[in-house]
Design a protein that fits this description.
six-stranded parallel β-sheet; alpha/beta; single chain; eight-stranded mixed β-sheet
Length: 393
């Protein structure tokens, strides 16, 4: 079997999609024979303009090969990313044109990698397995309402329909996505979420802080964009709680605005993205791990990948989330402080009663249940089973 994997981000890039795809490839490789091949078509590392890492344009390891396409540098803005993706889209189509594959796996948080997988699948007459990590149309509706870009929504709806109806099987990383997709597309669905990477299994219950000191370090890591809305609450928290020191590690389209909103505050420090070794050291120095999704309806369906990473550290977690993510946390991580996204008053009411106590046994159960490699092993089996059913149909 010759398998093509489409993933805009791939190791050594810093991205939830990169880490997820790398784990999936590792799991898939274990379940294939040496005669089977996997080819990954991705990009040169580009997730954050402030984080540079070298990678080969083409590399091979056993029966796995990786082709990295050089794209335009970007600053995480919508137009920048659209232009970069067009380069990836066109160059990928050209690269695979004369190649033969038996199946396509595409993972997508912004729809267009999935759309690329659909184009290739139809051109070559081979089955497509989609790994959907976001509802792009839903998100764009929230962002584009009342803006000049709203004219793009009908086009995005068409692309989504074409893409989903091209798939033989669709995996959703959040069960909160199911009502949206099932109402529109009668396709077989599975649910394999993100998980806890092996890198974070070095933490133990001994890393949990027993009590807060005079200074409480809040650490946020990841994207700093419209989807998080950090500029809508971090300045207010830092202004009121002088003993809280924010360490915000990452990059994105709203970082400049966040910097402008907090430049007068000594207790908000912004850092560029770091590799995982340095990130683990920063987690160890933290008192509280902080995350927020913006208060758009679209984000009530998502399940942030950061939850799994944070939970493995045995640190207290404060999360501004609603909808499915809120239900998920209440079920599996009841020690997390949850406040309404972007709601400063609700944050204050909850935080003023917050002790930071960790439910050690619940954390252990969570880590055991959501080990990334275990989830990816199951997803790789599901992928291969689906492809086998397709061949027999």
């Amino acid at each position: 079997m010759k398998i093509l994997i489409i993933s805009f981000y791939y190791k050594p890039d810093l991205s939830a999609g990169s880490f997820r795809t790398a784990s999936f490839v590792k799991a898939l490789k274990k379940q294939l024979s040496y005669a089977d091949t996997i080819e990954i078509v991705t990009t040169m590392p580009n997730r954050y303009s402030s984080f540079k890492v070298e990678a080969e344009e083409f590399e091979t390891s056993g029966n796995v090969s990786t082709k990295r396409i050089i794209i335009l540098s970007h600053k995480s803005g919508f137009l920048d990313q659209a232009r970069s993706f067009m380069v990836y889209f066109i160059e990928t189509i050209k690269y695979v044109r004369s190649k033969n594959y038996d199946a396509v796996f595409a993972t997508s948080s912004r729809l267009f990698s999935a759309f690329l997988g659909a184009i290739i699948s139809r051109q070559k007459g081979i089955p497509l397995y989609l790994d959907i990590r976001d509802i792009f149309v839903d998100t764009m509706r929230s962002l584009f309402t009342g803006t000049k870009q709203k004219f793009l929504i009908p086009l995005l709806i068409f692309i989504e329909k074409y893409t989903m109806l091209s798939a033989y099987k669709i995996n959703l990383i959040s069960e909160g996505f199911l009502p949206y997709f099932k109402e529109k597309y009668q396709i077989e669905y599975s649910f394999f979420p993100n998980g806890v990477d092996d890198d974070f299994l070095i933490f133990s219950a001994d890393d949990a802080r027993k009590a807060f000191g005079d200074k409480v370090v809040f650490t946020y890591t990841g994207n700093i964009g419209e989807g998080q809305g950090l500029e809508r609450i971090v300045p207010q928290i830092a202004q009121k709680y002088k003993n809280i020191e924010f360490h915000i590690i990452g990059d994105g389209g709203r970082k400049r605005i966040l910097r402008e909103c907090t430049e007068h505050l000594w207790n908000v420090r912004l850092f560029d993205p770091v590799n995982r070794k340095d990130l683990i050291a920063l987690y160890k120095q933290s008192d509280v791990l902080f995350l927020q999704l913006n208060d758009y309806d679209a984000f009530k369906k998502v399940l942030p990948s950061k939850i799994f990473e944070y939970a493995a550290t045995y640190k207290p977690i404060i999360a501004g989330v609603d909808g499915y993510a809120k239900e998920f946390l209440k079920k599996y991580l009841p020690d997390v402080l949850i406040y309404n996204p972007c709601d400063f008053d609700d944050f204050c009411r909850k935080y003023d009663c917050f002790t930071g106590t960790i439910d050690i046994e619940k954390r252990k159960e969570f880590i055991a249940k959501f080990l990334r490699q275990k989830i990816m092993d199951e997803m790789a089996r599901d992928f291969l089973d689906s492809m086998d059913r397709y061949r027999r149909s």
